[in-house]
Amino acid sequence: MRKLNKLFLAGALSLSIMAVPASVGASSYTVQQGESFHSIANEHGITLSNLQIANKNSGSQLMAGETIRIPDSVSHEDKELMAKLVHAEAKGEPYEGKVAVATVVLNRVDSNDFPDTVKGVIYEKVGGHYAFSPVKNGAINQGYTDEDMQAVNEAVAFRGQGNGSLYFYNPDKVDSDWVLSRDTIVKIGDHRFAK
After folding, report:
1. Smaller CB count within 10 Å for the chain: N or C?
2. Where in the sequence of the chain do the CATH 1.10.10.2520 domains occur?
3. Domain 76-194 has CATH 3.30.420.40
4. DSSP string of 157-194, one letter each residue
5. Which residues pair with 187 in a beta bridge?
6. What is the dihedral of CA 156, 167, 172, 149, to 10 degrees?
7. Cβ atoms of residues 54 and 69 within 8 Å
8. Tens digit of pLDDT for each residue in 132-187?
9. What share of the chain is helix, strand, coil (3-state, %, to 5)?
10. What is the SS3 assignment for 51?
11. Whole-model pTM?
């Protein structure tokens, strides 16, 4: 009887592991005859470029029966807000750093420890302190570049992948022992990305 229970438990665990999606923020989709990236993007309310980025495919050819990733959609308004934050926080940083800043916002949205909207994350204020200094000093209102928006689109397309950083900072400009104590995942330009 114990062997039977162990086999049942092992089988149940195997099924539950297979049922968990490979990445948060994306679902798989089986392409139907006659569909294109364009028609699938329209059907799911996402941009063509985000769909192509998520699938590492810049072409338009799809085969019926092929499985592709459908990234979660993020509203244009939220993308613009993220692009403004990226511009204010990562101006002069490498493109990879801009993508990483946008990814921190999305990781926070997906985390139970932060607000569950892009706007809520960006404008979060805890203990009288804003989460992002450009909100406090108004730099978030200075606009964004095409590259900033491209970085946001890439972060959205690959949402849920990466190392799960929730914080970033410039060690030359920060005076918080708490943030300096966080585990650094990656260094990009002048920023440190941490959990």
Report:
1. N
2. 76-194
3. no
4. HTTT-S----EEE-TTT---HHHHTSPEEEEETTEEEE
5. 192
6. 10
7. yes
8. 999 999 999 999 999 999 999 899 888 766 678 999 999 888 888 888 888 899 99
9. 50, 15, 40
10. helix
11. 0.70
Category of 150 on φ-ψ map: left (φ > 0), alpha (ψ -120 to 50) or beta: alpha
Angle at CA of residue 48, ends 42 and 50, nearest 5°? 120
Express each pLDDT in 98-109 by its tens digit: 999 999 999 999
Starting at the edge strand found earlier in the chain, the sheet holding 191-194 runs 167-169, 191-194, 184-188
In the chain, ranges of CATH 3.10.350.10 domains: 24-73
Q: Which CATH class is domain 24-73?
A: alpha beta
